[in-house]
């Protein structure tokens, strides 16, 4: 459902229907949380779900940050559009994760990639940040967004580096289990 909402969200935002875009974005974020909770609670986790869920997250966040970085998409409010350095940090993290995972898979055949708690926290912070940006645009409230931008970039960077170390640990554990 989240993947289907991405073009709706992007269109609404691009054509300056910020209130509807905010509603769709919140719906996508809440549905992600509910979906994950229900899957874990009732043991309905699947290999396909573990692949599609992070892809949906990355597509939604990438779309949101790119559109929110385009000048004149949102009404003129202080600290908008989202600075390009924030967007490139968020996207750069995702590209780093995908490249590392692809390289490791090609070289070693390892496929035991799992999201880290820090990566999940980073995604949550991104969802909250996009919601704050849209809320600021919709209401005109003077929310001090530069702090939000710095927190998003910091968590994107730290979680990207953390993920590389987590994958190395997972590979080592997998190798140890194989030898036993």
Describe this protein's structure.
This protein is mainly alpha-helical and 180 residues long. The protein has a single domain, classed as CDP-alcohol phosphotransferase transmembrane (TM) domain (Four Helix Bundle (Hemerythrin (Met), subunit A), Up-down Bundle). It is 79% helix and 0% strand. It is built from six helices and no strands. α1 runs parallel beside α3, α2 packs antiparallel against α5 and α4 packs parallel to α6. The longest helix is centred in the C-terminal third of the chain and has 35 residues. The chain is globular and about 60 Å long. The chain starts with a helix and ends with a helix. The model has no long low-confidence stretch (mean pLDDT 86).
List keywords for this structure.
single chain, 180 residues, mainly alpha, Four Helix Bundle (Hemerythrin (Met), subunit A), 6 helices, 0% strand, globular
Q: Short summary of the structure?
A:
With 180 residues, the protein is an all-alpha fold.
Provide the helix percentage: over 70%
The CATH topology comes to: Four Helix Bundle (Hemerythrin (Met), subunit A)
Identify the CATH class.
Mainly Alpha
In CATH, the architecture is: Up-down Bundle
Run of helices and strands = HHHHHH
Number of helices: 6
Sheet with the most strands? none
- End-to-end separation: 41 Å
Provide the CATH superfamily.
CDP-alcohol phosphotransferase transmembrane (TM) domain
In round numbers, the mean pLDDT is: 86
Shape: globular
Residue windows where pLDDT falls under 50 for at least 5 positions: none
Rg from alpha-carbon coordinates: 18 Å
């Amino acid at each position: 459902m989240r993947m289907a909402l991405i073009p709706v969200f992007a269109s609404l935002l691009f054509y300056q229907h910020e209130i509807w875009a905010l509603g769709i974005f919140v719906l996508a974020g809440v549905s992600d949380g509910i979906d994950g909770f229900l899957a874990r609670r009732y043991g309905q986790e699947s290999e396909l779900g573990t692949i599609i869920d992070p892809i949906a997250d990355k597509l939604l966040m990438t779309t949101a940050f790119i559109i929110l970085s385009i000048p004149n998409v949102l009404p003129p409010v202080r600290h908008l559009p989202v600075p390009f350095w924030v967007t490139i940090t968020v996207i750069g993290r995702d590209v780093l994760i995908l490249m590392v995972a692809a390289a490791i898979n090609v070289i070693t055949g390892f496929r035991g990639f799992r999201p880290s708690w820090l990566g999940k926290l980073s995604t949550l912070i991104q969802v909250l940040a996009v919601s704050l940006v849209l809320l600021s645009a919709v209401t005109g409230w003077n929310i001090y967004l530069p702090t939000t931008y710095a927190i998003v970039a910091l968590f994107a960077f730290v979680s990207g580096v953390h993920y590389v170390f987590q994958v190395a640990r997972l590979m080592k554990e997998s190798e140890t289990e194989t030898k036993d």
